[in-house]
């Protein structure tokens, strides 16, 4: 009945699932970062991903295959946003691109297992909203990501629902220590020195 989601209780009857982040967790965007001319925009990343084959994070496809062989469902929760393409009329071209990136990383999946920000009402940059949707039908046994927000809600400097206030370096540290029993025990964070919510929380 154990869950990697604090607050998920009485879930022993639900099938198990793992929630992955996508960028720097399933696929590496290091090559994109090397060619990026600032400022970063979601449109630049989406265009680059659409034009280039995804580079998998080492070991991710093998791990995913073993998890599936044990009957575990896989979800991919990314903050790549749904942004309508005014030229093609596609309301969310990032959906297909993100799903294809996961497939190119060696993990067969479908679009219903890839959850983007702003894809549905209430799905903002706060990933807790989407994790809670998954928790209605699955017992989450692992969270794997590269950013504190992949694990702990309200870790971003700018507050979005359901967070009442933005995060600071001090509040992030306190939340990290509060959940210390999860690190390495259901929560697995990969180092990402290139980008993330930590860059906005640091003092100027």
Task: List its traits.
single chain, 204 residues, alpha/beta, 5-stranded parallel sheet, two-stranded antiparallel sheet, 7 helices, globular
Number of helices: 7
Strand content: 15-25%
Oligomer: single chain
The structure class reads: alpha/beta
List the helices and strands and how they pair.
Layout (H helix, E strand, L loop, with lengths): L15 E5 L6 E2 L1 H6 L6 H10 L3 E2 L3 H10 L3 E9 L11 H12 L9 E4 L10 H8 L3 E7 L23 H10 L8 E3 L8 H4 L3
Parallel strand pairs: 1-4, 1-6, 4-5, 6-7
Antiparallel strand pairs: 2-3
Describe this structure in a few short sentences.
Helix content is about 30%, strand content about 15%.
What does this entry look like structurally?
The chain has 204 residues and is of the alpha/beta class. Helices cover 29% and strands 16% of the residues. The protein contains seven helices and seven strands; from the N terminus they run ββααβαβαβαβαβα. It has helices at 30-35, 42-51, 60-69, 93-104, 128-135, 169-178, 198-201; strands at 16-20, 27-28, 55-56, 73-81, 114-117, 139-145, 187-189. It has a five-stranded parallel sheet, sandwiched between helices. A two-stranded antiparallel ribbon has the order 2-3. The longest helix has 12 residues, at 93-104.
């Amino acid at each position: 009945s154990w869950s990697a989601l604090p607050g998920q209780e009485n879930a022993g009857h639900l099938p198990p699932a793992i929630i992955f982040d996508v960028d720097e967790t399933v696929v590496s965007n290091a090559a994109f970062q090397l060619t990026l001319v600032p400022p970063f925009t979601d449109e630049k990343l989406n265009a680059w991903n659409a034009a280039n084959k995804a580079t998998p994070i080492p070991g991710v496809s093998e791990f995913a295959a073993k998890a599936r062989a044990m009957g575990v469902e896989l979800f991919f929760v990314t903050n790549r946003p749904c942004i309508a393409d005014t030229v093609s009329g596609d309301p969310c071209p990032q959906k297909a691109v993100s799903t294809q990136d996961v497939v190119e990383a060696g993990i067969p999946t479908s679009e219903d297992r890839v959850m983007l920000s702003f894809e549905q009402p209430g799905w903002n940059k706060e990933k807790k909203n989407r994790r809670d949707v998954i928790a209605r039908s699955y017992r989450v046994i692992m969270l794997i990501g590269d950013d504190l927000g992949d694990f702990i809600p309200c870790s971003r400097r700018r507050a979005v629902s359901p967070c009442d206030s933005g995060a600071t370096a001090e509040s992030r540290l306190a939340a990290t220590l509060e959940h210390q029993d999860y690190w390495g025990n259901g929560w697995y964070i990969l180092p990402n020195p290139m980008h993330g919510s930590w860059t906005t929380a640091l003092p100027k």
